[in-house]
Automatic annotation (TrEMBL):
One Pfam family of this chain: Pribosyltran
A GO biological process held by the record: XMP salvage
Main localization (coarse): cytoplasm
UniProt name for this protein: Xanthine phosphoribosyltransferase
Reactions catalysed according to its record: XMP + diphosphate = xanthine + 5-phospho-alpha-D-ribose 1-diphosphate
Record flagged with keyword Cytoplasm: yes
Sequence similarity: Belongs to the purine/pyrimidine phosphoribosyltransferase family. Xpt subfamily.
Subcellular location: Cytoplasm
Keyword Cell inner membrane listed: no
GO molecular function: xanthine phosphoribosyltransferase activity
Length: 195
C-alpha cells in the first residue's frame, strides 16, 4: 500500500535492527485518513470471505481493525489484556508471550461475542513473531468459529510470525512487508527482491 509505505519512510524511526517506531501515525497518535485507507485496503482483500466479525488485541490494533470492520459492515471485538471490572466470567482466555517485551500476558474475549456461526478476520498493527495472532486464533477455535484470514498493517518479514501463520494454511495479507531494519534503514520486501 503506497500511502502506508510513504508514511513509514517519512515518519518511521528505526530504533534498532528489530524495532520500528511509528508512534506518529499508528502506535500512539493515529492518522484517521490513513486508518480509513487501511480499512478499505483490508476490506478489499477479504470482501469475498463472508466475514461476520473482526477481531484484534488492544490497543494499537483497534484503529485499523475498527476501520476494516466499518468497511465490511460487521462488529469489531478487541481482546483485552487486562481484566475488566465488568468482564469477569464466561471468557475465552489465551496466553500470549511477547518476545519483544519478554513477558507473558493473558488475553480475554467475552464468550458473548463469538460463537460457532462466526467467520472471523484478525487484524493487527504489527506482525513480529506471531504470538498475538496465535493467541487470537486459539480463542476463535475455542469458540468453534472459523478464522478466515489475518490482515497486518506492518509485517516484519525478517521475523518468524508470517511464516508460522502461512504454514498453518492461513491467508495472511500485509499492507507493508519490511525485509530489514539494518543500518538504520527501512527496506521493504519488494526492494530486497528487486536486487
Ligand atoms: P508478536 O505478537 O508478533 O509475537 O509480536 P511481539 O510479541 O514481539 O510484539 C509485542 C508488542 O510489540 C505488540 O504490541 C506489537 O505490536 C509490538 N511490536 C512488535 N514489533 C514492533 C515494532 O517493530 N515496532 C513497534 N512499534 N511495535 C512492535 P503490544 O504490546 O500489543 O502493544 P500495543 O498494541 O498496546 O501498542
Amino acid at each position: 500500500m503506497r500511502e502506508l509505505k510513504e508514511k513509514i519512510m517519512s515518519e518511521g524511526i528505526v530504533l534498532s535492527e528489530h524495532v520500528l517506531k511509528v508512534d506518529s501515525f499508528l502506535n500512539h497518535q493515529m492518522d484517521p485518513v490513513l486508518m480509513k485507507k487501511i480499512g478499505e485496503a483490508f476490506a478489499e482483500k477479504f470482501r469475498d470471505k463472508k466475514i461476520t466479525k473482526v477481531i484484534t488485541i488492544e490497543s494499537s490494533g483497534i484503529g485499523p481493525a475498527l476501520m476494516t470492520a466499518y468497511e465490511l459492515g460487521v462488529p469489531l471485538i478487541f481482546a483485552r489484556k487486562r481484566k475488566s471490572l465488568t468482564l469477569n466470567s464466561d471468557l475465552y482466555i489465551s496466553k500470549v508471550y511477547s518476545f519483544t517485551k519478554q513477558e507473558e500476558s493473558e488475553i480475554t474475549i467475552s464468550r458473548k461475542f463469538i460463537d460457532c456461526s462466526d467467520s472471523v478476520l484478525i487484524i493487527d498493527d504489527f506482525l513480529a513473531n506471531g504470538q498475538a495472532a496465535l493467541g487470537l486464533i486459539d480463542m476463535i477455535q475455542q469458540a468453534k468459529a472459523q478464522v478466515v484470514g489475518i490482515g497486518i498493517v506492518i509485517e516484519k518479514a525478517f521475523q518468524d510470525g508470517g511464516r508460522i501463520l502461512r504454514e498453518r494454511g492461513i491467508k495472511v495479507e500485509s499492507l507493508a512487508q519490511i525485509a530489514s531494519l539494518s543500518d538504520g534503514k527501512v527496506r521493504f520486501v519488494e526492494e530486497a527482491l528487486a536486487k
